[in-house]
Specification:
single chain; alpha+beta; Alpha-D-Glucose-1,6-Bisphosphate, Chain A, domain 4
């Protein structure tokens, strides 16, 4: 992903309450079930930092997250980068309530380009990853809690 690329935006509607979606995206025990089981700690508060490792084939990705904005039940934003690679981004989860369901909009903005030679950093890989997490994994997780 390059800093000249447009942001990635993925939206999904869930047939559950806004509070249930908020908890799924901000509570560690729930995040481990649909997002990254490797997450060691997470708190939805500004300034909180965490790191965890994901390995893909022979590549190591130490995720470095720092929470930059929190509006409970509405929005959480964090900087997202990797220890082993140049590049920096912001990931924002925004929630919107609509009667019997909740809509989530995820936006990824690239602040500093990631290395183009790493397959996981192509735009197609990033879009595919977010579509999987938001439209499949999180959706199935929330359905299983009904």
């Amino acid at each position: 992903m390059k800093d000249t690329d447009p942001p990635i935006v993925v939206e999904e509607t869930y047939m559950t309450t806004l509070e249930n979606v908020w908890k799924a995206i901000t509570e560690l025990d729930q995040m481990k079930k649909w997002f990254f089981e490797q997450i060691k700690s997470f708190e939805a508060k500004e300034g909180f930092e965490t790191q965890f490792v994901v390995e893909v084939e022979n590549r190591k990705f130490t995720h470095l997250w720092k929470i930059t904005e929190v509006i409970p039940n509405q929005k959480i934003k964090y900087s997202w980068r990797y220890k082993e690679y140049k590049g920096d981004s912001f990931v924002t989860f925004e929630l919107f309530e609509n009667k019997s369901h909740a809509k989530l909009r995820l936006t990824t903005e690239i602040i500093h380009s990631f290395p183009s030679k790493v397959p996981e950093f192509t735009r197609e890989s990033c879009v595919g990853g977010w579509e999987y997490f938001i439209k499949s994994s999180l959706k199935e997780y929330l359905l299983s809690k009904r």
